[in-house]
Amino acid sequence: MHNTDSIQTTHAGSLPRSPELLAANAAMTENPGDPAAFEELLAGSVKDVVARQREVGITFPNDGEYGHTMSNSVDYGAWWNYSFSRLGGLTPGGVDRWQSTEKVRSEPGKIRLTSMRDRRDRVRFDEAYNDPNSFILTGRKAVPQPTVTGPITYTGQEAVQRDIAHLKEALAANGFETGFLPALSPGSASRIANEYYKSDEELVYACADAMREEYKTIVDAGLTVQIDDPSIAENWDMINPEPTVEDYLAFTQLRVEALNYAIRDLPQEQIRFHLCWGSWHGPHTTDLPFADLAQTMLSINAGSYSFEAANARHEHEWKVWRDLTLPEEKAVVPGVVSHATNVVEHPELVADRIERFAQILGRERVIASTDCGLGGRVHPQIAWAKLEALSEGARLASQRLWG
């Protein structure tokens, strides 16, 4: 996790899928056809995307999340939706959370998550979100979410072993020693309709028990697991009316404790935690400030922390690290290019962003990354150009920091 003579480069997980893989994903969902042919295409696609990462200068790659089915070329939710096929106890649903008109209001002393359509950012900019010509949700395909109707269990053993095998084969073919695979956090996995568990705590811990199996399998294979957990930051905007920060952090503490329970005894150096405020393209004026979340994030027993630090809503928050204490053995993985804009960041700006963190935390503990996944959020040409800019910026920063 620590740099020796240059800044390492990585990204937050999702990378653009090829048209062939998107078509195969759709075919497997609607008509399974030939599973062997699909596996051959998937394995080759992972090998290609790892090679592409090497070509653009990524030093700590992954499989592009190609094992997580993407519904369309525009897809903000594959990081989460993949879990629906890997968890037992779920009954397929008919409502997409972005389309649901349900309004759930919190009450004094009881925080409840509302629907995506009733989140505060969307309510405030209702005209923009409902404009069919708006860039905010253009092209997104609806994906219904399931309901918990029985005990949650992990059923994805074959799928995660497939992901591991494809990535390890691709890493070896491209000269990499190791890489990472993203996996859903308990707090995010539990953000579905529940008709079985009696309490929020029971549901979250059931998800923790189930998802632990995926985390452990990835770590035991010698890879790093990235815990994708927007529930820590993004839930803030899904609570209506706005709670106090104190009440929200108390609500969030359950998610943190469940995650620490799920990763207990696993080597921290193989665990990367990813914090974000949601990947959708919107104003984000109701995001909770990072300063209010930083200590909570650091209480998660991960070896490194990935977070948004490049987009216009959060770039200024690098200054928060002046007042934080990061244990010596840990590292930060700040976003230095953003998924939320089509503008390709200049390498000089990327280098400046990297140096800010290096000057506070030390050059050995800063790994350059993206704010969030690029796949399904920006056009493939732009996504790869952003990764090139990230790598070039890291090269410039390395020259300045090591001489």
UniProtKB/TrEMBL annotation:
Q: What is this protein called?
A: Methionine synthase
Q: Which Gene3D superfamilies match?
A: 3.20.20.210
Q: Name one GO biological process term.
A: methionine biosynthetic process
Which organism is this protein's natural source? Sinomonas humi
Q: Please name one Pfam family that this protein belongs to.
A: Meth_synt_2
Under the GO molecular function aspect, what terms does this record hold?
5-methyltetrahydropteroyltriglutamate-homocysteine S-methyltransferase activity; zinc ion binding
| Residues of the Cobalamin-independent methionine synthase MetE C-terminal/archaeal domain | 198-381
